[in-house]
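Milestone M4 deliverable, item 7.
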Amino acid sequence: MKFTTKAIHVGNTPNFKAGGTGDVIVPIHLSTTFARKRVYAPTAGYDYSRSGNPTRHALEKNLASLEHGKYAFAYASGLAAITNVLLLLKPGDHVIGIDNLYGGTYRLFSQVFAQWGIQLSLVNFTDGDSLVNYIRPNTKCIWLESPTNPLLKIVDLKSVSTIAKKKGILTVIDNTFATPCWQQPLDLDIDIVIHSATKYLGGHSDVTAGCVITKNKTLGKRLGFLQNAVGAILSPFDSYALLKGIKTLSVRMEKHGKNTKEVVAFLSKHKKIKKIYYPGLLSHPQHAIAKKQMQGFGAMVSFELHGTIQTAITFMESLKLIHIAISLGAVESLIEHPASMTHASVPKKEREKCGLFDTLIRLSVGIEDVDDIIADLSQALKKAN
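Output delivered:
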Protein backbone atom coordinates (compact mmCIF):
# COMPACT_ATOMS: atom_id res chain seq x y z
CA MET A 1 0.00 0.00 0.00
CA LYS A 2 1.44 3.38 -1.02
CA PHE A 3 1.70 6.50 1.14
CA THR A 4 -1.43 8.37 0.07
CA THR A 5 -3.57 5.24 0.39
CA LYS A 6 -2.16 4.46 3.84
CA ALA A 7 -2.80 8.01 5.02
CA ILE A 8 -6.46 7.65 4.10
CA HIS A 9 -7.19 4.04 5.07
CA VAL A 10 -4.88 2.66 7.78
CA GLY A 11 -6.66 2.80 11.14
CA ASN A 12 -9.95 3.55 9.40
CA THR A 13 -11.00 0.01 8.48
CA PRO A 14 -14.81 -0.32 8.82
CA ASN A 15 -15.88 -2.71 11.58
CA PHE A 16 -18.14 -5.42 10.11
CA LYS A 17 -17.94 -7.74 13.12
CA ALA A 18 -21.04 -8.55 15.16
CA GLY A 19 -22.25 -5.28 16.61
CA GLY A 20 -20.05 -3.23 14.27
CA THR A 21 -21.68 -0.45 12.27
CA GLY A 22 -19.27 -0.28 9.31
CA ASP A 23 -18.10 3.28 10.06
CA VAL A 24 -15.96 4.63 7.21
CA ILE A 25 -14.56 7.21 9.66
CA VAL A 26 -13.38 6.06 13.09
CA PRO A 27 -15.89 7.18 15.75
CA ILE A 28 -14.87 9.45 18.63
CA HIS A 29 -14.79 7.15 21.66
CA LEU A 30 -15.31 9.62 24.50
CA SER A 31 -15.72 7.04 27.25
CA THR A 32 -13.08 7.41 29.95
CA THR A 33 -13.55 3.87 31.21
CA PHE A 34 -14.60 0.55 29.70
CA ALA A 35 -16.78 -2.03 31.47
CA ARG A 36 -15.73 -5.66 31.55
CA LYS A 37 -17.66 -8.87 32.09
CA ARG A 38 -14.81 -10.58 33.90
CA VAL A 39 -12.32 -9.23 36.45
CA TYR A 40 -9.23 -10.39 34.55
CA ALA A 41 -10.45 -9.78 30.98
CA PRO A 42 -10.80 -6.15 29.82
CA THR A 43 -13.29 -5.85 26.97
CA ALA A 44 -11.46 -5.65 23.61
CA GLY A 45 -8.28 -4.90 25.56
CA TYR A 46 -9.48 -1.50 26.87
CA ASP A 47 -10.06 -0.60 30.50
CA TYR A 48 -9.20 3.10 31.02
CA SER A 49 -8.80 5.77 28.34
CA ARG A 50 -5.39 6.98 29.51
CA SER A 51 -4.06 3.47 29.02
CA GLY A 52 -5.77 2.94 25.68
CA ASN A 53 -8.58 4.40 23.62
CA PRO A 54 -10.03 3.04 20.34
CA THR A 55 -9.87 6.41 18.55
CA ARG A 56 -6.30 7.08 19.68
CA HIS A 57 -5.34 3.50 18.84
CA ALA A 58 -6.62 3.99 15.27
CA LEU A 59 -4.51 7.15 14.95
CA GLU A 60 -1.41 5.45 16.36
CA LYS A 61 -1.80 2.59 13.90
CA ASN A 62 -1.98 5.12 11.07
CA LEU A 63 1.09 7.05 12.29
CA ALA A 64 3.18 3.88 12.59
CA SER A 65 2.36 2.91 9.00
CA LEU A 66 3.27 6.34 7.59
CA GLU A 67 6.72 6.30 9.23
CA HIS A 68 7.34 2.61 8.42
CA GLY A 69 7.35 1.88 12.15
CA LYS A 70 5.71 -0.72 14.36
CA TYR A 71 4.90 1.25 17.51
CA ALA A 72 3.38 4.73 17.67
CA PHE A 73 2.21 6.86 20.59
CA ALA A 74 0.10 10.02 20.48
CA TYR A 75 0.45 12.83 23.02
CA ALA A 76 -1.19 16.11 23.94
CA SER A 77 1.54 18.19 22.26
CA GLY A 78 4.87 17.90 20.48
CA LEU A 79 6.72 18.83 23.68
CA ALA A 80 4.79 16.17 25.60
CA ALA A 81 6.09 13.66 23.03
CA ILE A 82 9.65 14.99 23.44
CA THR A 83 9.33 14.79 27.24
CA ASN A 84 8.33 11.12 27.07
CA VAL A 85 11.38 10.33 24.93
CA LEU A 86 13.69 12.21 27.30
CA LEU A 87 12.34 10.08 30.13
CA LEU A 88 14.23 7.19 28.52
CA LEU A 89 17.42 8.85 29.80
CA LYS A 90 19.01 8.78 33.26
CA PRO A 91 20.79 11.39 35.41
CA GLY A 92 24.33 11.90 34.12
CA ASP A 93 23.50 10.97 30.53
CA HIS A 94 24.90 13.22 27.84
CA VAL A 95 22.96 14.24 24.74
CA ILE A 96 24.43 15.66 21.54
CA GLY A 97 21.99 17.99 19.83
CA ILE A 98 22.13 19.69 16.44
CA ASP A 99 23.17 23.30 16.96
CA ASN A 100 20.03 25.19 15.89
CA LEU A 101 17.60 23.05 17.81
CA TYR A 102 13.98 24.21 18.11
CA GLY A 103 13.70 26.72 20.96
CA GLY A 104 11.06 24.75 22.86
CA THR A 105 13.26 21.64 22.82
CA TYR A 106 16.24 23.69 24.00
CA ARG A 107 14.14 25.17 26.83
CA LEU A 108 13.02 21.69 27.90
CA PHE A 109 16.62 20.48 28.05
CA SER A 110 18.13 23.58 29.67
CA GLN A 111 15.40 24.58 32.14
CA VAL A 112 13.72 21.29 33.00
CA PHE A 113 15.83 18.21 32.39
CA ALA A 114 19.12 19.90 33.29
CA GLN A 115 17.99 19.91 36.94
CA TRP A 116 17.77 16.11 36.75
CA GLY A 117 21.34 15.81 35.49
CA ILE A 118 20.75 15.43 31.75
CA GLN A 119 23.62 17.12 29.90
CA LEU A 120 23.16 18.72 26.46
CA SER A 121 25.83 19.81 23.99
CA LEU A 122 24.65 21.76 20.95
CA VAL A 123 27.17 21.22 18.18
CA ASN A 124 27.58 21.81 14.48
CA PHE A 125 27.49 18.54 12.57
CA THR A 126 25.90 17.26 9.39
CA ASP A 127 27.19 13.68 9.21
CA GLY A 128 28.77 10.90 11.22
CA ASP A 129 32.33 12.07 10.54
CA SER A 130 31.66 15.57 11.91
CA LEU A 131 29.74 14.12 14.86
CA VAL A 132 32.24 11.57 16.16
CA ASN A 133 34.56 14.10 17.85
CA TYR A 134 31.78 15.22 20.20
CA ILE A 135 30.91 11.79 21.57
CA ARG A 136 31.78 11.27 25.26
CA PRO A 137 31.83 8.08 27.34
CA ASN A 138 28.45 9.10 28.83
CA THR A 139 26.83 10.10 25.51
CA LYS A 140 23.57 8.18 25.38
CA CYS A 141 21.53 10.05 22.79
CA ILE A 142 21.93 12.02 19.58
CA TRP A 143 19.08 14.49 19.08
CA LEU A 144 18.45 15.47 15.48
CA GLU A 145 16.34 17.74 13.35
CA SER A 146 16.61 17.53 9.57
CA PRO A 147 15.74 20.01 8.23
CA THR A 148 16.53 22.00 11.34
CA ASN A 149 14.37 24.76 12.78
CA PRO A 150 14.82 27.48 11.58
CA LEU A 151 18.06 27.37 9.53
CA LEU A 152 17.04 24.28 7.52
CA LYS A 153 20.33 22.46 7.91
CA ILE A 154 20.29 18.88 6.61
CA VAL A 155 21.90 15.97 8.46
CA ASP A 156 23.09 12.82 6.70
CA LEU A 157 20.91 10.51 8.77
CA LYS A 158 22.37 7.20 7.59
CA SER A 159 25.95 8.20 8.39
CA VAL A 160 24.92 9.42 11.86
CA SER A 161 22.89 6.30 12.64
CA THR A 162 25.80 4.09 11.52
CA ILE A 163 28.17 5.76 13.99
CA ALA A 164 25.53 5.71 16.73
CA LYS A 165 24.81 1.99 16.27
CA LYS A 166 28.52 1.19 16.61
CA LYS A 167 28.67 3.18 19.86
CA GLY A 168 25.35 1.94 21.26
CA ILE A 169 23.86 5.45 21.27
CA LEU A 170 20.16 6.17 20.86
CA THR A 171 19.21 8.33 17.86
CA VAL A 172 16.13 10.56 17.89
CA ILE A 173 14.87 12.88 15.16
CA ASP A 174 12.20 15.53 15.06
CA ASN A 175 10.77 14.90 11.58
CA THR A 176 8.15 17.66 11.75
CA PHE A 177 9.51 19.80 8.89
CA ALA A 178 9.98 16.95 6.41
CA THR A 179 6.88 14.91 7.36
CA PRO A 180 6.69 11.17 6.61
CA CYS A 181 5.49 12.21 3.16
CA TRP A 182 9.02 13.31 2.25
CA GLN A 183 11.35 11.52 4.69
CA GLN A 184 11.30 8.20 6.56
CA PRO A 185 14.17 8.29 9.11
CA LEU A 186 13.42 4.80 10.52
CA ASP A 187 14.41 3.38 7.13
CA LEU A 188 17.79 5.08 7.65
CA ASP A 189 18.24 3.28 11.00
CA ILE A 190 17.24 6.20 13.23
CA ASP A 191 15.73 4.71 16.42
CA ILE A 192 12.91 7.15 17.22
CA VAL A 193 10.92 9.66 15.17
CA ILE A 194 9.04 12.54 16.79
CA HIS A 195 6.48 14.91 15.28
CA SER A 196 4.76 18.01 16.45
CA ALA A 197 1.57 16.73 14.84
CA THR A 198 0.10 20.18 15.41
CA LYS A 199 1.92 21.15 12.24
CA TYR A 200 1.73 19.37 8.86
CA LEU A 201 0.08 16.17 10.07
CA GLY A 202 -2.94 18.09 11.37
CA GLY A 203 -2.45 20.82 8.83
CA HIS A 204 -5.36 23.10 9.73
CA SER A 205 -4.25 24.97 12.89
CA ASP A 206 -7.02 23.32 14.91
CA VAL A 207 -5.40 20.49 16.88
CA THR A 208 -2.42 20.43 19.25
CA ALA A 209 -0.71 17.03 19.27
CA GLY A 210 2.57 15.15 19.23
CA CYS A 211 3.64 11.63 18.40
CA VAL A 212 6.54 9.21 18.73
CA ILE A 213 7.21 6.27 16.40
CA THR A 214 9.77 3.45 16.51
CA LYS A 215 10.46 0.03 15.01
CA ASN A 216 12.29 -1.22 18.08
CA LYS A 217 10.29 -3.58 20.28
CA THR A 218 12.18 -2.76 23.50
CA LEU A 219 11.81 0.99 22.93
CA GLY A 220 8.18 0.51 21.97
CA LYS A 221 7.44 -1.33 25.21
CA ARG A 222 9.16 1.30 27.33
CA LEU A 223 7.53 4.23 25.51
CA GLY A 224 4.14 2.57 25.91
CA PHE A 225 4.76 2.29 29.64
CA LEU A 226 5.82 5.95 29.87
CA GLN A 227 2.82 7.16 27.87
CA ASN A 228 0.51 5.44 30.34
CA ALA A 229 2.52 6.27 33.47
CA VAL A 230 3.04 9.96 32.69
CA GLY A 231 -0.41 10.40 31.17
CA ALA A 232 0.13 13.18 28.61
CA ILE A 233 -2.10 11.36 26.14
CA LEU A 234 -3.98 12.80 23.16
CA SER A 235 -7.73 13.14 23.69
CA PRO A 236 -10.20 11.09 21.60
CA PHE A 237 -11.53 14.23 19.91
CA ASP A 238 -8.06 15.46 18.95
CA SER A 239 -7.14 11.95 17.79
CA TYR A 240 -10.15 12.05 15.48
CA ALA A 241 -9.24 15.53 14.21
CA LEU A 242 -5.65 14.47 13.53
CA LEU A 243 -6.73 11.36 11.64
CA LYS A 244 -8.96 13.61 9.55
CA GLY A 245 -6.08 15.97 8.79
CA ILE A 246 -3.74 13.15 7.81
CA LYS A 247 -6.14 12.01 5.08
CA THR A 248 -5.17 15.05 2.99
CA LEU A 249 -1.48 15.16 3.98
CA SER A 250 -0.18 13.91 0.64
CA VAL A 251 -2.12 16.35 -1.54
CA ARG A 252 -1.41 19.23 0.83
CA MET A 253 2.34 18.55 0.81
CA GLU A 254 2.36 18.47 -2.99
CA LYS A 255 0.79 21.94 -3.11
CA HIS A 256 2.99 23.23 -0.26
CA GLY A 257 6.06 22.09 -2.18
CA LYS A 258 5.05 23.67 -5.49
CA ASN A 259 4.23 26.98 -3.83
CA THR A 260 7.50 27.03 -1.90
CA LYS A 261 9.61 26.59 -5.03
CA GLU A 262 7.94 29.65 -6.59
CA VAL A 263 8.26 31.71 -3.42
CA VAL A 264 11.97 30.84 -3.15
CA ALA A 265 12.48 31.80 -6.80
CA PHE A 266 10.86 35.19 -6.09
CA LEU A 267 12.89 35.82 -2.93
CA SER A 268 16.14 34.78 -4.63
CA LYS A 269 15.82 37.66 -7.08
CA HIS A 270 14.78 40.35 -4.60
CA LYS A 271 17.39 42.98 -3.74
CA LYS A 272 16.27 43.29 -0.09
CA ILE A 273 16.94 39.61 0.64
CA LYS A 274 20.41 39.05 2.06
CA LYS A 275 20.40 35.25 2.38
CA ILE A 276 17.98 32.35 1.83
CA TYR A 277 17.91 29.03 3.68
CA TYR A 278 16.17 26.33 1.66
CA PRO A 279 17.53 22.81 0.97
CA GLY A 280 16.04 22.79 -2.52
CA LEU A 281 18.55 25.42 -3.66
CA LEU A 282 21.69 24.14 -5.38
CA SER A 283 23.61 26.65 -3.26
CA HIS A 284 22.45 25.03 -0.01
CA PRO A 285 25.50 23.35 1.64
CA GLN A 286 23.66 20.05 2.13
CA HIS A 287 21.56 20.08 -1.05
CA ALA A 288 23.04 16.76 -2.20
CA ILE A 289 22.23 15.06 1.12
CA ALA A 290 18.65 16.39 1.02
CA LYS A 291 18.24 15.11 -2.52
CA LYS A 292 19.54 11.68 -1.47
CA GLN A 293 17.38 11.09 1.62
CA MET A 294 14.24 13.15 1.00
CA GLN A 295 11.46 12.89 -1.56
CA GLY A 296 10.81 16.64 -1.39
CA PHE A 297 12.62 19.68 0.00
CA GLY A 298 9.91 20.87 2.35
CA ALA A 299 7.68 23.92 2.54
CA MET A 300 9.68 25.95 5.03
CA VAL A 301 12.00 28.75 3.96
CA SER A 302 14.03 31.09 6.15
CA PHE A 303 15.66 34.28 4.95
CA GLU A 304 17.60 37.28 6.20
CA LEU A 305 16.84 40.84 5.18
CA HIS A 306 19.34 43.60 4.61
CA GLY A 307 18.97 46.05 7.47
CA THR A 308 18.19 45.76 11.17
CA ILE A 309 15.75 43.93 13.40
CA GLN A 310 13.35 46.83 12.84
CA THR A 311 13.53 46.18 9.09
CA ALA A 312 12.39 42.61 9.72
CA ILE A 313 9.59 43.71 12.04
CA THR A 314 8.35 46.39 9.62
CA PHE A 315 8.28 43.84 6.81
CA MET A 316 6.33 41.29 8.85
CA GLU A 317 3.85 43.81 10.22
CA SER A 318 3.18 45.07 6.68
CA LEU A 319 1.93 41.67 5.50
CA LYS A 320 -1.81 41.43 4.86
CA LEU A 321 -2.47 37.84 3.77
CA ILE A 322 0.32 36.01 5.60
CA HIS A 323 -0.28 35.74 9.35
CA ILE A 324 2.39 36.42 11.98
CA ALA A 325 2.15 33.28 14.11
CA ILE A 326 4.46 30.96 16.01
CA SER A 327 3.25 27.72 14.40
CA LEU A 328 3.82 26.29 10.92
CA GLY A 329 2.71 23.59 8.50
CA ALA A 330 -0.85 24.82 8.07
CA VAL A 331 -2.92 25.42 4.95
CA GLU A 332 -2.52 29.17 5.56
CA SER A 333 0.88 30.82 5.17
CA LEU A 334 2.46 31.74 8.51
CA ILE A 335 5.53 33.82 9.26
CA GLU A 336 7.53 34.38 12.42
CA HIS A 337 10.62 36.09 13.83
CA PRO A 338 12.68 33.32 15.51
CA ALA A 339 14.82 35.61 17.68
CA SER A 340 11.78 37.06 19.47
CA MET A 341 9.30 34.21 19.07
CA THR A 342 10.13 30.49 18.70
CA HIS A 343 13.77 30.83 19.80
CA ALA A 344 13.44 33.61 22.37
CA SER A 345 14.37 31.12 25.12
CA VAL A 346 17.77 30.57 23.47
CA PRO A 347 20.34 33.12 24.70
CA LYS A 348 21.31 35.68 22.03
CA LYS A 349 24.94 34.55 22.11
CA GLU A 350 23.90 30.93 21.50
CA ARG A 351 21.54 31.99 18.71
CA GLU A 352 24.13 34.03 16.86
CA LYS A 353 26.78 31.35 17.35
CA CYS A 354 24.81 29.04 15.04
CA GLY A 355 23.80 31.81 12.63
CA LEU A 356 20.37 32.73 13.95
CA PHE A 357 20.47 36.53 13.68
CA ASP A 358 17.88 39.18 14.52
CA THR A 359 17.13 39.80 10.84
CA LEU A 360 16.20 36.16 10.21
CA ILE A 361 12.59 35.41 9.28
CA ARG A 362 10.96 31.96 8.98
CA LEU A 363 8.14 31.47 6.50
CA SER A 364 5.80 28.48 6.39
CA VAL A 365 4.40 28.56 2.86
CA GLY A 366 0.72 27.66 2.74
CA ILE A 367 -1.47 26.29 -0.02
CA GLU A 368 -3.15 29.55 -1.06
CA ASP A 369 -2.79 30.66 -4.68
CA VAL A 370 0.94 31.28 -4.97
CA ASP A 371 0.42 34.55 -6.87
CA ASP A 372 -1.36 35.96 -3.82
CA ILE A 373 1.43 34.83 -1.49
CA ILE A 374 4.10 36.43 -3.66
CA ALA A 375 2.07 39.63 -4.07
CA ASP A 376 1.81 39.97 -0.30
CA LEU A 377 5.54 39.39 0.18
CA SER A 378 6.30 41.92 -2.55
CA GLN A 379 4.19 44.73 -1.14
CA ALA A 380 5.57 44.18 2.39
CA LEU A 381 9.17 44.18 1.18
CA LYS A 382 8.61 47.59 -0.44
CA LYS A 383 7.77 48.96 3.02
CA ALA A 384 10.74 47.36 4.79
CA ASN A 385 13.50 49.95 5.09
